[in-house]
Amino acid sequence: MPNVIILGAQWGDEGKGKVVDRLAAKADLTVRYQGGANAGHTVVVDQAKFVLHLIPSGILNPNCVNYIGNGCVVDPEVLLQEMDGLVQQGIEVTSVRLKVADNAHVVTPYHKAWDRVTGGAIGTTGRGIGPCYVDKARRTGLRMADLVSGAYRNVMAKQAEEYAKLFKTVSTQEALPELADVLSRYELVAQRLAPHIADLVPPLAQAVAAKRNILLEGAQGTLLDVDHGTYPFVTSSNTTVGGALTGTGVFMELHHRIAVMKAYTTRVGHGPFPTELADELGETLRKKGQEFGATTGRPRRCGWLDLPLLQRAAWTNGFNSIALMKMDVLQGIDPIRVAIGRDAQGNPVYRAFEGFREDISGVRQFEQLPAACQRYISFLQTELGIPVNLLSTGPERNSTLIREMPW
Ligand code: IMP
């Protein structure tokens, strides 16, 4: 069966949860391969709402096995909370159903404290993501396997020293975590997580060879990629397609490369946003689209769709399918603009499209969409040369128009 990767084409929060949920229902294996608890997928199943930060959405499908790959950074306390929350909601979270790569790095309380002290300039989520990837790159990180072997005690003691030195270089109200307290918390964490920690390369390679339905679940979005995004206003991992191979350690063909994008654009945190609407219309989009972060609750910045950026995202990821989300939010906005290029000063050049007034939430056939809505979608498809195979027409699970799905 084909392998599927789902990626955000913009600055994250494109609505990947809804698409992943649909595909995870038929997946045998779902894998997260980068990022950490900075992500937030909200999935609504039979009126029960699940907010997932680290655990792949396949956990909601009883027949699906879920891996957190080596490219992720795992806050073990957040992971346990998330596992407990799911169990309380009646989801089975056994060591067979949820596995974490033994070489994934651990986000420690020191990383989170340092992120809270230094992340303001970028507007990070404060989840310790950047500092954890820094320690990974400078080879002072803690890995999941260290929780099992007990090596975490030494690594953590070194981190406590290092971060105490760093804290002396800044003036902050933030308290440095006490080593003894952290170690006693981690004693418990290590015990509970040990059965879930494993080398995931052999079982993933076997699943690939057995042609199981594999779903790779991207977090954040293309423009937050540490190499290809709007650096330095980015996250610290490779959110783009290459991250899936380094972040799992197993080569596989990625047959379906699904771009999840909103019918407009949003971003949280600081950094460039050429098509931002810092006016009343931006406020309208924020209210209609309920554009507030799932992880931090921060209001999202809103603006028009930006074709040149989407074109770049398509080149980087080789997208061959689009899931266009939140089309309903544009209902009643007239005209709808799309940036189609840049002028000599680098400012966006827009093309205006006639808006549509009709409620589209019940529409299941492309041909039954209002003509103006069809024209907007057709324009995107033609410009990017990629079909829109899924259109989200409302927040409900069934407010979705499907033309083609991988399985
Ligand atoms: P960090 O990943 O927490 O270090 O944050 C770096 C930048 O990425 C900030 O601008 C965040 O707002 C943004 N970011 C991180 N995770 C997400 C996400 O899941 N959705 C949208 N933006 C995110």
Describe this structure in words.
The model has no long low-confidence stretch (mean pLDDT 96). The protein is built from twelve helices and 19 strands. Helix 3 crosses helix 4. The protein is 31% helix and 19% strand. The N and C termini lie close together (8 Å). It is an alpha/beta fold and 407 residues long. The strands form five sheets. Strands 9-7-5-2-10-1-11-15-18-19 form a ten-stranded mixed beta sheet, sandwiched between helices. A three-stranded mixed beta sheet has the order 14-16-17. Strands 3-4 form a two-stranded antiparallel ribbon. The structure holds inosinic acid (IMP). Inosinic acid binds at residues 11-13, 38-40, 122-125, 127, 129-130, 219-220, 224, 233, 235-236, 268-269. Inosinic acid binds next to helix 4.
